[in-house]
Queue: 4 jobs
Job 1
Amino acid sequence: MASPPASPNVLISGFGIASTVFAATLLRAYPNATITIVERDPAMRLTGASVDIRSSAVDIIKWMSHEPAIRAKTTKETGVEFVDDAGKSFATLMATGNDNIQTMTSEYEIFRGDLARIFWKEIEDRVTVIFSETVESYVQKMDSVLVSFANGKAAASYDLLVAADGLGSKIRGMMLGTSVGQHIHDEGVYASFFVIEKDLLNGSKLAKWYNTTGGRAIFLRPDPDPRGRTRGHFMNSAWPSDTAARAKINAALRAGNEAYMQLVEETFADVGFHQTPEILAAMRSTPDFYASKFAQVRAPRIQDGRVVLLGDAGYACPGIGTSLAIMGGHILAGELLQHNLDVPAAAKAYEDLMLPYAKSEQSTLGDYAMQMLNPQSAWGLWVRNTVLWAVTAAKIDRVAVWMMGWLGLEEKKIKMPVYPWPEVKA
């Protein structure tokens, strides 16, 4: 068998959080690594919802020395208040102030684009990025993987091919010999995200969460932009048995933004929340509308020799997906270092550590939790609202957080190996 290269030549498909964390971490281990990223879009996508950082990912951003920059760019959201038609709050869940025990509002609530920029800034002059390009096919050889491209880039060989190309990863389908959608588990929750060029929260740092029948919800979240803006979200959910509703929403997602906005307008036209007309109008004028579904990727494997699935491509999981992407990027780079660039061995070690942890976060219970938080019926809404009011009025939520802190109970973390990272020069 050929000896490992002195520094790796890596191709990453997909330009996002998982890929930039992996690239940055690999460059700490191998400063002379050659890293190429191909991205199907014409530019880095910086739109989308706020994301949060939890569990072992918190330790990683601290290790990367990015915590101060991330805290500086957080949304400053202090909690979530549940409101009625008139916008009056009946229950509020506050952030904890403890990054080891977090509620709906994370201590690191940050917009996806801002987080991506922070990771990218560390490596922007050390990585080659090719936009409007995708992987067409690949062939594995004994000591390399030969990759062919779809849009003009010449075929080339790499030591490792990393698929960080998201929920609909073509490379996952190639690697597993299945259709792209076979291992996607649709949770039946669909959301759109957009900027509202007005502060609809009137300076408050509490997000507003409004629900009505039919599993429909409206979110208003604070935006730290000093110009005074709000982030708006429309969300609707459908039970697994409601195949017609799911098919209709998925068809609109596939058709693009215009089709999805029309669906939102149709779905929310009769909603009684007092700010609905203004939010619908803002959706139409936003410069960065984005829509997606909540879905898990339940891949049986996340590696095959010199091909690896990273982040959402291998183990998408709403709620903790960004944290899994950060963990995965760190662990994959760490295993390459630990195994002295024996790529197949490192990939297997990465899978053995990352896949069981990701699967433990992907319980079907999460589907029902979202459905219970966004009920279909008036009766379901009454029950949910009553429970939320009782829990917060009695401060049960705060007592529970205090007890967890007192007992030293933290969020479940992955058993991270101690990798032999070289010292970072000041």
Job 2
Amino acid sequence: MVTVLMLVLVGAGALAVDIGRIAAYKAQIQNGADASALAVAAYCAKNKTSCTTTGASLANQYTPANSNGGTAVPASVTFPTSTSVRVVSSSPAGGLQLTLANALNIDSQVVEAAATAVWKPPGGDGGFPLALSDSCFDLANASNSGDLQKFSYKPGSGKNATPTNMQCTRNASGQTVPGGWGWLKESDPCEATTSANGTIPSDPGNDPGDCKTILEGWISTLSQNKPVEVLFPVFSYADYQGNSAQYHILGYATLQIYAWQFSGTGNSPYTYMPGSIPAKVKCTGSERCVVGKFVRFVTTEAETGPGGKDYGSYAVALTQ
């Protein structure tokens, strides 16, 4: 009886130890699956035509690099929908070698972990309290960036204007609105919380003094010859009644900022580009304006849905 019980106890102990090892190993290779899914999703968001062909190579790179000991391998990369990817990571060929389970003639165990990531236009965000006009958006489907333009805080010629005089300040109904950009009502100092297809009050009297630290950060980045890329809500004007105006948020676009001039800050325009900004888009005098161009962008910070209008910026997130 002692012999029989010893066999049972050894077998149970072997299973407990190796089951624990399997669970720990699965958690490690889950990191590889998560990292691979996010990497593939981020790539596909910007490169739709080569998404499926490049996905496998990215999984081969990120799965072992983000698993403990670099032992995990990608078992499969599939695309359940046009905006999602599923990556399965696995233990190497032959499975995870077990130790005490050998007493039960179990030498190894294949261990797998899966992760699914999606990429969609952002559905909501909290950030710098400034919105851009839909009339300004010029990022074509096949382009990574639009034209360098000036977003002026005054009436202008509308969407069909030339780059020289474009102020992007006319909505679909032909109403003149206060600029290609506008201040939003803050939910916190230098932050406005918005959602796609929602509305938010404007704040025409906003003094960006609350944003001094952020603006100084932009200046520091530009002085290092690095780009400043900011995700902004994009609006069409739903109601224009002076200080009671409401912005209707359509979605989110990323602006690579070259220069700005806001009232109340004393900041002159700044640029990270060598040389000067072209005269046709330069802020002059006391003009309140922002100079920049729309670019494609991927973020893991904004909400992924329900998504807004596609402006070339995408939120990437794990779904399982």
Job 3
Amino acid sequence: MSTIVGLRATTLTPFAYHSLAVKGGTATLPELISDNALCFGLAAVLGHVRAWSALPAKDYQRDLRAMPWRSSVLMADEPRLLPPLARRLNLEEEGGFPKKLRDVANKGNLKQFWTTQEVPPASVFRGALFGIDPFAETGLDAFVIRVGLHRNGMVKLERDDQIRTVRLNAWTAMLFERTLSVQRFLIYPLQLTASMPLDEAAQEVAQWN
């Protein structure tokens, strides 16, 4: 994996993940797009369907091994969140779920009304991809990938030759039996290393196989 591609990611539509518990719902982490969200989003766009098929049991190590790239975490230039947005989950009319499930509809993430906080459009994130260069492979200047709950967020990826340092996800490294020092523990699947030069990051992810 000798190719290093600096990336600029710009949100085109809002997106959220169930990252943080807040009163009445959940909020996403506004400061990053995870390495795995990027990798799986690219796999979908570039036709690597075997790498993210819904048919096999979830296995991140297996799926990442099927992809010809690894990535850093994409860090936000200016982390921002939109105001809380109310959502409704209509289990009776839309879900078609049995009564025993409807009876717990007011508990946890199954309650009918809850809120999320989303990352707004025009938010910029930066990081790097290691492996094949998708821009050179396809001749395209940009890609649009989907991220977030139900893949409802759209993110434009462009080359950024100004990237000099990146952060890796130590949790992803652990999948490949690599132990990295963690500077910031956000949630279990997102454990950020300190910033490191691109060459050093490329040498590390080359061992994630």
Job 4
Amino acid sequence: MVTMRFETVERRRVRSGMADVEQDRDRREAWLISVDGTPRSYVDLLDPADLPFGVTRRIADVVDALPPGPLNALHIGGAAGSLPRYVQHVRRGSDQLVVDADDAMVDLVNAHLPVPTGISVRAGNGVDALRAARDLDLVVLEAVVLPEELASEDFQRYVAEALTGSRTYVVNVVDQPDLSATTRLIDVVAARFGVPLVIADLGLLAGTGPGNVVLVSTEAVLPVAQLDARAREARFPAAVSVGL
């Protein structure tokens, strides 16, 4: 992420820790959400295509490779909505619901970062939202730590029942160098959807520390080599492969 200067506008206790809403001093419509000092989301209200966080950019690259047209999407987690805002920006007419279990975080974000038409953000249980959903083109699950219920076989079945069209399912988690969470997720996702595309931080693969892993299952044909090239050239490089 490029050097930016921020000032804290509000600090509030949320379920996952102490959250800060920080305003970019040089771009007054741009905001950073941090929890316990760790940046979680960056949102530029005037330019939603500006995605300085590598993992969000990698998922956006996958979205760009899907068949053209608006998307009916459910996002579980990620209440600041960097990715939904991007989708709404590049695919006008999309209908998106963002559900986050952290009601305090949802309230905090809603107080500072108004969402565009076509996106709804609410506090709630992601499993319940998924079970009630149908005719989705895209399901995105974002979790720093993945709860057991969201890694279960039942959850994957709910995803399959809710999806239609290109049937694109994206899971983003933070894993350790032993890749234990990734391995477990690949097993349950593959059992329902086939071997997923894996986008993993190179630092994580090299064993230098924790990092993000994104699993992608879709019936769309993705340009894997192109996605891999873009990921490797990024400021925070990653690798793209089919399975590990």
